[in-house]
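Researcher: Please predict.
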Amino acid sequence: MTALCGKVPAVRDLLSFIAVVTLCFIVSSTAFGTDEPSSLEPLQGLRGGAKVDALVDLVVERQRALTSLEATFVQDKSSELLLEPVTSKGRFRFKAPDRVRWDYESPDEMIVVFAGETLTTFRPSDHVAEKIRVPKKHRRFVKVLAGTQPLDELKSQFSLTLSDRGAPEPLVLTLRPIHRTLKRKLAQVRLEIDRMLLLPVVVEYQDADGDSTRYEFIDLRVDPEINDEVFELDLGDDVRINTIEMPD
């Protein structure tokens, strides 16, 4: 995986998505209520790990009920290599169980699609695309990258801590990687969870080198009709396609 990322810049960028563990399930909210919603009753009286487990159960129940999702997104990235933070905007679409498409529209156009066993990146301005066949043993890892891995299934890869400052503030769930492979890339993920929706509304992560990225979703549509063709890129004859086989 490390060698592959060194050769393909787009894949190197996708590795940063490992922090975006629930992006395909995010719902954006403009305000939080001042009273504790009844949906949080299962958390009452719980502390520590028991409260974290109960919250994860509630979030996963909502995650698994979704069949599709569509939204515009804003990504803010900060790095020591950047003179100032960079903001990217685009469109995100998800269709259960594991098809995802990201259309980066500004400042640079790029399309990222994960469907079946293939991860495709396409940069229209360069007329270049990369198609990466993902072996079965790596698909769970790529699902994390693409944002299709349910939150409960990440508990074996991350330690989870919860901060609850009370209504109207969001619940803040912090995920820190357990395994050495993830620790080399990722320091932590911070999720702000809407108390009414019981879903993350902000995802922010910090790389091991100190770089940080924040995602926010707006104009979200839950369970819209999305044609399967959306996840099939029609690459013209003028596009150079690099096909990459990940080792089994």
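Model: Confidence is low (pLDDT under 50) at residues 1-35, 144-148.
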